TrEMBL record:
Entry protein name: Helicase HerA central domain-containing protein
Taxonomy, superkingdom: Bacteria
Region (Disordered): 310-333, 486-508
Domain Helicase HerA central: 16-76
PANTHER family cross-referenced by the UniProt entry: HELICASE MJ1565-RELATED
């Protein structure tokens, strides 16, 4: 059923329509500096679509709680335990109730954590409750930042992961992401890139204008128009809005935010006893206490730096008068170091519980082994370690690694999140070698989980990104095809155990 809602008027004076059903499948990104009318646009969208689709609003400032009076949204105060938030989110999806999660009054790291817990609970709801939900996140650059800022790395990763799930994998679960941001340059690119619809408002910084123009398919000269947009005016593009960039003026709204833009008003007449009025103490003054300044915990020092410092201290302590216990091993050549790295990664990947240990824990193990070989500094950066470890886990031999198809598979990792690179390469290795399609248990093990259900989600996501094509043969066995590699796996049973993969006999 196609439902078009009225967002305002176009530059030609026509009604600016937004196809809600198309929006649910293609997601929306709204960008505009403070005062551009971004929140007004979100309110118009929510009001016009309230009777057609369930809505969940992540509201950092508590501006959208007024929707409850006119449209019946439930207001959820985020100052709760994680268990409470998960339970509320599950019941929200089960009973199809629209809600506003207000984060007002929480510190930024608490806001990010609460929003992540709530969004992840919506994402992990049972399949029976995958009804369409318009999921609106205001000030999205707070929850999917390009860098950590003052928040801890743990909170940043948790929040960024929840936003990535919403925008990248939420469609099949009924979650339609609508994200709004003041600064495109501060919003994580892998989150922004998943939106197919755009409403770009006034912005002044060159970097933000350039990204907005790039998303809309404009050149640099056309990007200058974003400086001249008035409040409430946006440029629309996308399958749910318009096939070509279209100037739109957002229409009026029924409700209003609790906070509003400051208005000028004349000062009152100055009282004659103004000094007594200001400086005479009030009895309550003595009872008040200044709030303690927020302490920002220093960022932990990287382990690599600590180990470098310890190594240097040890070397400085060794004087000619205090000889070492034995001859020091000569420094490795570059070729020897490459061989050591390959051998060490193979040992780490081959360990029985390697898949179920975090990458950071394995990286510390890798660094410690390097120290034992007196390798100065980090032999590999963390990102390169993850990529090389994923290759080692895939089981590809030296001949395959040198092949053109494998190099193409490695280049495709740019479109895969870091946590799924090992799974992707394992599937690619099976396709290039013509092996049977890995079972759900094997895929889950490669990721570091025991959930076969999650393994099937990974395959769905790969297919949604256009990286693979899933189909079955005449025997009902699963086949994974890679269009970019022009290769596909042999048929394999999804239910085969991880340690005994079922391979299809060629004679069949």
């Amino acid at each position: 059923m196609q439902v078009d809602i009225d967002m305002g008027t176009t530059s030609a004076g026509d009604v600016a329509k937004l196809d809600i059903e198309e929006l649910l499948a293609t997601r929306l990104l709204v960008q505009g500096n403070s005062g551009s009318g971004k929140s007004h646009l979100l309110r118009r969208l929510l009001e016009q679509s309230a009777k057609w689709v369930q809505q969940v609003v992540i509201d950092p400032e508590g501006d959208f709680v007024t929707l409850s009076e006119a449209f019946g949204h439930i207001v959820v105060d985020a100052e709760r335990s994680e268990g409470e938030l998960i339970g509320i989110a599950n019941r929200i999806r089960q009973h199809r109730v629209s809600c506003v999660l207000t984060l007002e009054g929480l510190e930024i790291d608490d806001q990010m954590r609460a929003a992540a817990v709530f969004l992840n609970a919506l994402f992990d709801a049972d399949r029976d409750y995958w009804y369409p939900v318009l999921t609106v996140v205001d000030e999205a650059q707070m929850f999917a930042p390009t860098s950590g800022g003052e928040v801890s790395e743990e909170v940043r990763r948790l929040s960024l992961g929840a936003m990535t799930n919403l925008m990248c994998r939420g469609r099949k679960r009924g979650l339609a992401g609508v994200i709004a941001t003041q600064r495109l340059a501060k919003l994580a690119k892998n989150v922004a890139a998943e939106a197919s619809n755009f409403l770009m408002g006034r912005t002044f910084l060159d970097i933000d204008m350039a990204r907005a123009a790039d998303l809309l398919g404009m050149d640099r000269r056309q990007a200058e128009q974003f400086r001249d947009l008035k409040r409430g005016n946006f440029v629309a593009l996308g399958p749910a809005l318009s096939r070509r960039p279209l100037p739109v003026t957002i229409g009026p709204v029924e409700t209003s935010a609790r906070s509003s833009s400051p208005k000028l008003m004349p000062l009152p007449e100055k009282p004659e006893d103004v000094e007594d009025l200001i400086f005479t103490p009030d009895p309550e003054d003595m009872a008040r206490q200044a709030s303690a300044p927020r302490r920002v915990a220093p960022r932990p020092r990287p382990t690599v730096d600590i180990m470098d410092a310890l190594s240097k201290s040890s070397e400085e302590a060794e004087t000619p008068e205090a000889p070492t216990r034995g001859p020091r091993a000569p420094a490795m050549s570059d070729e020897e170091k490459d061989d050591w790295i390959a051998m060490t990664l193979a040992e780490i990947a081959g360990a029985p519980e390697s898949a179920f240990r975090s990458d950071s824990e394995l990286y510390q193990d890798f660094l410690m082994r390097g120290r034992m070989k007196r390798i100065s500094g980090a032999p590999l950066a963390m990102n390169e370690f993850r990529r090389r470890l994923a290759i080692a886990r895939s089981g590809a031999d030296a001949a395959m690694v040198e092949s053109e198809q494998w190099q193409m598979a490695v280049s495709l990792l740019a479109h895969v999140t870091e946590d799924l690179q090992g799974v992707f390469l394992m599937l690619a290795k099976a396709a290039i070698a013509g092996d049977a399609c890995p079972s759900d248990a094997m895929i889950a093990r490669a990721y570091g989980t025991h959930s076969a259900r999650r393994a099937r989600r990974f395959l769905d996501w790969f297919e949604e990104q256009g990286l693979i094509v899933l189909h079955t043969d005449l025997a009902g066995l699963r086949i994974v095809a890679f269009p970019d590699l022009d290769r596909q796996t042999a048929g394999g049973s999804p239910d085969a155990p991880a340690d005994e993969p079922e391979r299809r006999d060629a004679a069949e």
